Amino acid sequence: MLDRLQQAAFDYFVRTWNPQNGLIADTTRAGSPCSIATVGFALSAYPIAVERGWIERADAVQRSVEVMRFFRNSDQTGSRHATGYRGFYFHFLDMQSGARMWQSEVSLIDTALLLAGMLTAAAYFAAATPAEIELRELADALYRRVDWRWAQSEGSAVVHGWKPECGFLNYGWEGYSEAILLYVLGLGSPSHPLTEDSFEAWTLTYQWENLYGHDFLYAGPLFIHQFSHAWIDFRDIRDRFMREKDCDYFENSRRATYVQREYATRNPRSFTGYGEDCWGLSAGDGPSVEPQLVAGRRQAFYGYAARGVPWGPDDGTIAGTATLASLVFAPEIALPALRKLCAQATRDEDTPVRASGFNATAHAPGAKTWISQGEFGLDQGMIVLMIENYRSGLPWRLGRSCPYIRTGLRRAGFRGGWL
Amino acid sequence: MPPSGPRAPESRHERELVVNACPPGWQNPTPGAPYHLLIIGAGPGGLMAARGAAALGVKVALIERHRLGGDSLNYGGVPSKAMIRTARLYADMRNASQYGAEPPADIRVDFLAAMERVRRIRARISRVDSAVRLVAEGIDLYFGTARFIGRDAVEVGGTRVRFRKALIATGSRPILPTIPGLVEAGFLTNETVFDLTVQPASLLVIGGGPLGCELAQAFSRFGTRTIIAHDEPLFLPKEERDAAQMVSEALARDGVEIHLNSTVVNVRVEGSRKVVEMVNDGNVATTAVDEILTGIGRVPAVQGLDLEAAGVAYDAAAGVHVDDFLRTSNPRIYAAGDVCLEHQFTDTADASARIVVHNALFLGRKKMSALTIPWCTYTDPEVAHVGMYVKEARQRRIPVKTFTVPMHDIDRAITDGEEDGFVKIHVREGTDTILGATIVARHAGEMINGISLAMVAKIGLRTVARVIHTYPTQAEAIKKAADAYTRTHRTPFFAWLWRTWLNR
Fold first, then answer.
1. Which CATH number applies to B381-492?
2. What is the dihedral of CA B331, B336, B341, B345, to 10 degrees?
């Protein structure tokens, strides 16, 4: 099952690839722009595909070099139709021209996901061939070009993003989130690093909670507990906060997974299907249908949203990818849940897992379930990387070998374990 | 220019309120020897201090510029809660099917009746603190604007009034926004909104603080198309994210159009409507409304007091400067309530005034910092907080752990169909000492009192767990949080002992 899911997910990056510039589409839906985060996942998936024999090494190198050349040569003026600014990139780009799409923001977290992919590729393609040397030089140059310090607009806190129309966005990183990857990469930079107090300032907003009998660093949506773990092996390494709590971020994600299952078992809003083998609230697509009466309540449906536990939003939508990405943390509960999800399929048995959302409550009359149409690149990337981490640990090994990630972790105060 | 808006309608209730709170033709007393305690401002703090001091036989002067009762009675907690109650009833009627009941076939909002009820309740409550009663209790009551004319005297209505000790309790006033075109278009504040007699078809609320959120939800439940614009990413910026997010979701459920991270930049009048421009991340949105309500906060009421003449230090933003004993830079003069405190609540004004009576008249050394101050935002669900937030504790390097109980785990919340919310109790990690708590629940304001009591009495979660809470009640959530504490704090030795006992 896992082999089938992983290869099918990788195929996304082949099908949505633009050979002219190496960009990858955000989704399979018509007219989808490129998401820079999805490119980061593609760059991280190429080494896995080589190892698994799905593509040739030279092909993977060529795809990686091509897209990094595009970013190196891209418009970095920060104008309304540029590709990036100060080494960061707009969240969504035109698949053909690479220009900014949808008035999107220069996104710090999505740039971090892109850079994680570049550094992963650089760590894997370590041969002394001209192509692989160029690949490593490109990754290094693009990483060093990022002006992380600029993103500390006020004091030590790091902003979410920037737009040419209004400057820095009025959002900060508050509470535990996937931004831990952003901070590690920002702190590891040899050229324009974040100041060390930035990580400390962010972790002051953490909340250590006891919920459903589990002590954990709280965050509602499951992807928050997973994204950084696609690249960084957090087992047995601890920062100051986790030393204080006698825990680590990997163990924390395991507990967060159990909290998710407990919530689904209690199923306070009485959604169809929720239970100990059907859980996984996270960011993803969901139904955008008219409100329905669910257990006597008027239930709205939220479309694409970051769903979370236990405060929602929750409209009965399960993100199968989030269930799958829990494999590394809690396989004993993730595998039964995955098998049950596959059994829900009305056509291809992988669909409920690989689709961006699955909802058995908000179904049309006569239909069994609602399933998100098409595929989303982020989901496929997480499937490829987390299955590989579960099977061989390759992405984690590559992350551990990256000097910038090691430096970033140390500057964030991580100690112990493999570090 | 004063804010535009409706004038208080002539009604039996309004007349009663005026007779009680600001009697026409009032004759100020003739001052004699210096008063033991002179109080400027007859809001909750001033009234409490005057009554408390008079009961002890102290010669007291109380000076009020406008109406007895202050903001709380006239423009704040009392009228808003009365209005919110009616709005909640309409919401419950519409949600009747959730309770297995048939919704009324035709729910027609009688806004006039709702507002009449607001005024009736305001008049009724004003009886307790009426001018006549205060005088009967031995208080010399002056109506007029007071200004200091020296370090030990004020002038009110042209009369010099001397004091040995004084209390400044003038409260706060709304911040009037400086949005181009707003004054010309006219707007409501909390001082005028409760005088409405006609329901606005549409309303823009500027500011997502407590009052803005409360009234936006109430008007939306009355059926007014309500828009709220707030220039931060979340409402209630002081509250924790989950609480603020729940308020946002509740407002959205009630049909409020939410514009977070949005700044109102311009207002213009087109016909009978006010056209408003809002900017969000550089994008401009335009909407037309019938009324605009500002809820952007309050500033201390220090203007016109001539504090310089008394040697009292102050600034426009923070108000009168006081030390922890609430004494100003003039040792004869104290301050209490909104005019000097960060927390601008009726209960805090009351508590701080008690401290002043003790410290000013009895050489007391009670400290403001020793108070445990709870507060509540009366949206539905309500958001109540006491003590420290987690972030504050972590900034002070206090190890903190939160015990979280969702209301959807509480039987009474389920039976009442009031499952949105939580109890979060923060303790110093490794101990059962309560640092603070946040409750989001339909009756959070009532529930938080149990935690405030525990904090003041220095009762830890271990003891709270031993207290039998009536079942089923929503306050059982507090007991469950305490139970969670006891489950996680069994020592390894206890666990070993227990296993040994079981396996004997």
1. 3.30.390.30
2. 170
**CA-CA distance, A265 to A279, in Å (whole number)?**
8
The residue type at A110: D
Out of A166, A209, A269, closest to residue B402 by CB: A209
Report the CATH number of the A2-207+393-411 domain. 1.50.10.140
CB contact (8 A) between residue A175 and residue B241: yes
pLDDT tens per residue, chain B (504 residues)? 334 455 556 678 888 888 888 889 899 999 989 999 999 999 999 999 999 999 999 999 999 998 888 778 888 889 999 999 999 999 999 999 989 999 999 999 999 999 999 999 998 998 888 999 999 999 999 999 999 999 999 999 999 999 999 999 999 988 878 899 999 999 999 888 998 989 999 999 999 989 899 999 999 999 999 999 999 888 988 888 999 999 999 999 999 999 999 999 999 999 999 999 999 988 899 999 999 998 667 899 999 999 999 999 999 999 999 999 999 999 999 999 999 998 888 889 999 999 999 999 988 899 999 999 999 999 999 999 999 999 999 999 999 999 999 999 999 999 999 999 999 999 999 999 999 999 999 999 999 999 999 999 999 999 999 999 999 999 999 999 999 999 987 666 777 777 777 777
Between the CA of residue B281 and those of A99, B71, B248, B287, what are the distances in Å? 20, 36, 19, 17
The verdict on B102 touching A (C-beta cutoff 8 Å) is: no
Contacts of A171 in chain B (CB under 8 A): 233, 261
Q: What is the DSSP letter of A17?
A: B
Is pTM, for the whole model, over 0.90? yes
**B7 CB neighbour count, 10 Å cutoff:** 8
Residues of A in contact with B492 (CB under 8 A): none
A&B contacts, CB < 8 Å:
82
ipTM of model over 0.95: no
Mark which residues 196-235 of B lie under 8 Å from A by CB: 231-233
Chain A interface test: which of B242, B429, B440 (most A C-beta within 10 Å)? B242
Top-level CATH class of B12-174+299-370? alpha beta
